[in-house]
Write a structure and sequence with these properties.
This protein is α/β, with parallel strands linked by helices and about 475 residues long. The chain is built from 16 helices and 20 strands. It folds into two domains: about 10-110 and about 330-430, NAD(P)-binding Rossmann-like Domain (Rossmann fold); about 110-330, FAD/NAD(P)-binding domain. Helix 6 runs parallel beside helix 9.
Length: about 475
């Protein structure tokens, strides 16, 4: 019998999830001249590209340019796309194991971290995942009951997603109308009464996780003032020393000091940035948010020499009508795949999926045969889109190292048509690359007519109507 991965026995790979990490894994496999491979993307929505489509802010079109690279991968004759197919519902773990030599889980981090404070689940208190999905046209969040008939919102978090959320809330709708923001979001933002967004960071200004381009963008939004209290960004000696080692932190501080030096605040809208604060309760009356109680923090040095925030016992209430938390994403368990609840990732070593019992140092490493993971589900929700590339390449190296010992699937399932027949027998209304290209062209044409990059279709039913129409 020929080794799997040769012309006589092509390697059949399923990639669950069609986001950046999955595409980078496919690219790495396709580049191997010594490998004969056939790749099937299996994706829940009819639209590929994951966070590039549904997560990148609409006013950051340059970041979305990576789609051109992904488009080339989708056009490769060795690659197929099966959209509108939900893993665990339409196709199951036992199906994939039977029809593919190797499986890559590129499922991302779909859930959000919680604050675990009273009032967190009140109406108009949402995770950033929901708000980002809402303005990007993610089908799950199309009907988010967001109330923008409020004058002040509080955004909790200091990463780039928190910055995106804040920026979208106060950017003039006429500016957003030049982007691919979802039409329903643009319409609601035009009617928004919001005048201020307060951005809260748990630690100090030197420890903030946002990047310098993001903080600089605040100062370029038409009609928006940025307020920073100079006393709130004063640094303790250890934080000041951090600036000597961390160029990003130093550049961020320079921008923040520039904002703090501005004394004229005459614009109609404002962003107020505050550090060393933690939310402790979201307040309400008659079911409506009225404010958020925060505790002021101080930085203390722990046993490892790291600085962490500690409450001082001083409290304050910020009146507001909306709260958005942006304190991190987390992966969720999927059918048949070992999951580490502590790290909220798929259990793995070097991208190889492992059984949970390998947590015992004395136990031998038990690898889940021929199953792998990439991206945030592998390493946790960190880094930019490009950080997925070396991560995916590393997992592919593990896959290739395992090939000599790979038994491969039964010959009866090796024909690429076999999985198609299975889906047809289950009446799964799957979407192909050609179908996606039809939808893509439709969105681009609508955008062109309005002078925009694209106008997104935001419900699966309408997507399928366009495709089948």
């Amino acid at each position: 019998m020929s080794q799997v991965g040769t012309a006589a026995q092509p390697l059949r790979v399923a990639i669950i999830g069609a986001g950046p990490a999955g595409f980078y894994a496919a690219e790495s496999l396709l580049k191997r001249a010594d490998l004969t491979v056939a790749i099937d993307f299996i994706n829940r929505f009819p639209t590929p590209f994951g966070l590039v489509r549904d997560g990148v802010a609409p006013d950051h079109q340059s970041i979305k340019a990576v789609i051109r690279v992904f488009d080339k991968i989708l056009s490769d004759p060795r690659v197929r796309f099966f959209g509108n197919v939900t893993y665990g519902v339409d196709l199951h773990h036992h199906d994939l194991v039977a029809y593919y030599d190797q499986i890559i889980y590129a499922v991302g981090a779909q859930a959000d971290r919680r604050m675990h404070i009273p009032g967190e689940d009140l109406p108009n208190s949402y995770p950033a995942t929901a708000f980002v999905g809402w303005y990007n046209g993610h089908p799950d969040y199309r009907e988010l009951p967001l109330d923008l008939d409020v004058e002040r919102a509080v955004v909790i978090g200091n990463g780039n997603v928190a910055m995106d959320v804040t920026r979208i809330l106060v950017t003039p709708p006429d500016e957003l109308a030049k982007t691919d923001i979802a039409d329903h979001a643009l319409e609601r933002l035009r009617a928004s009464k919001l005048r201020e967004v307060v951005l809260l960071g748990r630690r100090g200004a030197a420890q903030a996780a946002f990047t310098t381009p993001e903080i600089k963008e605040f100062g370029k939004i038409p009609g928006v003032d940025v307020l920073v209290d100079a006393q709130n960004i004063e640094l303790d000696p250890q934080s000041a020393a951090l600036l000597e080692e961390d160029r990003t932190a130093a550049a961020n501080m320079e921008v923040l000091r520039g904002y703090a030096a501005q004394t004229q605040h005459t614009q109609a809208r404002r962003i107020t940035m505050r550090f060393l604060t933690s939310p402790v309760e979201i307040l309400s009356e008659h079911g409506h948010i009225t404010g958020i109680r925060i505790e002021r923090n101080a930085l203390v040095t722990d046993a490892n020499g790291s600085q962490r925030a500690q409450g001082t016992g001083e409290f304050e209430v910020i009146p507001c009508g909306m709260v958005l938390r942006s304190i991190g994403y987390r992966s969720t368990p999927i059918e048949g795949v070992p999951f580490n609840e502590e790290t909220a990732t798929i259990s793995n070593i070097a991208g190889r999926v492992i059984h949970p019992d390998t947590a015992d140092d004395n136990a031998p490493t038990m690898v889940h045969p021929a199953e792998y993971v990439v991206g945030w589900a592998k390493r946790g929700p960190s880094g930019l889109i490009g950080n997925n590339k070396p991560d995916s390449v590393a997992t592919v190296e593990s896959m290739l190292a395992d090939l000599p010992n790979l038994a491969g699937i039964d010959d009866a399932h090796r024909d690429p048509a076999a999985i198609v027949s299975l889906m047809q027998s289950r009446h799964i209304d799957f979407v192909t690359v050609q179908d996606w290209k039809k939808l893509d062209a439709y969105e681009l044409d609508r955008g062109k007519a309005q002078g925009r990059p694209r106008v997104k279709v935001t419900t699966v039913a309408e997507m399928l109507e366009v495709i089948r129409g």
